[in-house]
Design a protein that fits this description.
By secondary structure, this protein is of the alpha/beta class. It is built from 14 helices and 20 strands. The protein is globular and about 85 Å long. The structure holds xanthosine-5'-monophosphate. Catalyzes the synthesis of GMP from XMP.
């Protein structure tokens, strides 16, 4: 088997909000890449053995005291280097050029004029040698280092891009990694393929083949336990492990009674029946509802649901003999973010030997086959592994489930009503094509009664709120502007088909100041 991570690109992160996107774009181009903090050690850089290095953008100015610099070895390894925005500025300064503080921050679309087409800008310009890019910078390079030539400019930025083709050093002031840069994908592909000479072995089929081999080596003939939730990450881990080790895998699916309509049955059908995976279903609805009785505070509810989950999972785990490994669906952004928040920088891989929260007597070794993959890569893997598209491209569903979508105290009666309403909402979103146009949508149970009229009678029943949002990062969101006809159809169906609902409202709050969930 070819070594699919042999051609690898190192990304040194100077803290730009777009840094992760660079790694994703490189991988989309079929080349393995990893991102580390800019002050990665010389030994680690050498050990990584990159075919090329990308210096990311960053929020600082090279004129600020103590502002970050690229390790000198980056320019002495003999591999191509691409500096993006701040990365271009520090590269210029470190190699003898000059950077000046700009009086104005240039932010937004710009049109570059390509004056010299090097390998990086191959097929980037149109017939007039122009191309639309996304700029976001204050400082700019005003004198290039020796050996560099300008390759493009804009009216306000004389060195929008430049290169030293002998040493294979390239710099761009704009951001090729964001989709606003029209030919960004081509530019990154030029760098990794034409300039660095990487192949394109990083694709789903090869990743699956590699992962299966690695899992077989790591696990041997031992047994593995996996908490299966039906979400994308744990589903892909289940499918991957099943291919790698077959019956050595046991999954535990905890049905907490706070799932969507028929979800438990669907998970069992998909994994146990269709794929032949050994899945233990722990029906714990009653237990969760008992623990939640009388509790109204959202954070208290979250804690109880989390605690009960661990207890149920641990009980099931204790019933199994000789399990050595616990599999988890950790993905690369979890790894980067948790390292960043702890260390103030990008990426420190730690291996740990237990999962947060499990009791000490259950000391498993971890198996995390998605730990170096982005969500979009995980999804592609899932499709390639035969998991149906609708499961892989589902809206996120929070761990506490309907527990935080029933305001205040959670009761089975409320959960049953909410499940029906949510199901009607989802059916109509899918039928109208709006499911894929929204990032997350769900119904929320309001524990208040409202008067309605049915035929000649009066109805005094519950209120359901509908929530649908558009967002990319879930940090900010705007309420989805669903067509009124669609909202009309959904609300009519909910009130007609569920006798316990007398009123439907649509949530028109954006985040901030509102959150996406109601609790
Ligand atoms: P908010 O409500 O904070 O939600 O705007 C942002 C995203 O996080 C999800 N969310 C949760 N996910 N456990 C989870 O696993 C939770 O307790 C939780 N609370 C919110 C929410 O669904 C949205 O996608």
């Amino acid at each position: 088997m070819t070594n699919i991570t042999q051609d690898r690109i190192l990304i040194l992160d100077f803290g730009s909000q777009y840094s992760q996107l660079i790694a994703r774009r490189v991988r989309e181009a079929g080349v393995y890449s990893e991102m580390y903090a800019y002050d990665m050690s010389i030994e680690d850089i050498k050990a990584f053995n990159p075919k090329g290095i990308i210096l990311s953008g960053g929020p600082e100015s090279v004129h600020e005291e103590g502002s970050p610099r690229a390790p000198e070895i980056v320019f002495n390894l003999g591999v191509p280097v691409l500096g993006i925005c701040y990365g271009f500025q520090t590269m210029s300064e470190q190699l003898g050029g000059k950077v000046e503080a700009g009086d104005v921050h240039e932010f937004g679309y710009a049109e570059i004029n390509i004056t010299h087409q090097d390998a990086l800008l191959s097929k980037v310009g149109d017939e007039k040698n122009q191309s639309q890019v996304w700029m976001s910078h204050g400082d700019k390079v005003v004198r290039l280092p020796e050996g560099f030539s300008v390759t493009s400019s804009t009216p306000s930025c004389p060195y929008a891009s430049a290169s030293d083709e002998t040493r294979k050093f390239y710099g761009v002031q704009f951001h090729p990694e964001v989709t606003h840069t029209a030919k960004g994908t081509e530019l990154i592909s030029n760098f990794v393929h034409i300039i660095c000479g990487c192949g394109n072995a990083w694709n789903s089929e090869n990743i699956i083949e590699l992962r299966i081999k690695q899992l077989q080596e790591q696990i041997g003939d031992q047994k593995v336990l996996l908490g299966l939730s039906g979400g994308v990450d744990s589903s892909v881990v289940a499918a991957l492990l099943h291919r790698a080790i077959g019956d050595q895998l046991t999954c535990v699916f905890v049905d907490n009674g706070l799932l969507r309509l028929n979800e438990g049955d669907q998970v069992m059908q998909m994994f146990a029946e269709n794929m032949g995976i050994r899945v233990i279903r722990a029906d714990a609805e009653q237990r969760f509802l008992t623990a939640l009785a009388g509790v109204t505070d959202p954070e208290a509810k979250r804690k109880i649901i989390g605690r009960e989950f661990i207890e149920v999972f641990a009980e099931e785990a204790r019933k199994l003999d000789g399990v050595k490994f616990l599999a988890q669906g950790t993905i690369y952004p979890d790894v980067i973010e948790s390292a960043a928040s702890k260390q103030g920088k990008a990426h420190v891989i730690k291996s740990h030997h237990n999962v947060g929260g499990l009791p000490d007597d259950l000391a498993f070794e971890l198996v995390e086959p998605l730990r170096d993959l982005f969500k979009d890569e995980v999804r592609k893997l899932g499709v390639a592994l035969g998991i149906p598209h609708h499961m892989i491209y589902r809206h996120p569903f929070p761990g506490p489930g309907l527990g935080v979508r029933i305001l205040g105290e959670v009761k089975k009666e409320y959960a049953d009503i909410l499940r029906l309403a949510d199901d009607i909402f989802m059916q109509e979103l899918r039928a109208s094509g709006w499911y894929d146009k929204t990032a997350q949508a769900f119904a929320v149970f309001q524990p208040v009664k409202s008067v309605g009229v049915v035929g000649d009678g009066r109805r005094y029943a519950w209120v359901i709120a509908l929530r649908a949002v558009e967002t990319v990062d879930f940090m900010t969101a705007r309420f989805a502007h669903l067509p009124y006809e669609l909202v009309d159809k959904i609300s009519t169906r909910i009130m007609n088909e569920i006798k316990d609902v007398s009123r439907v409202v649509y949530d028109v709050s954006s985040k901030p100041p509102a959150t996406i969930e109601w609790e």
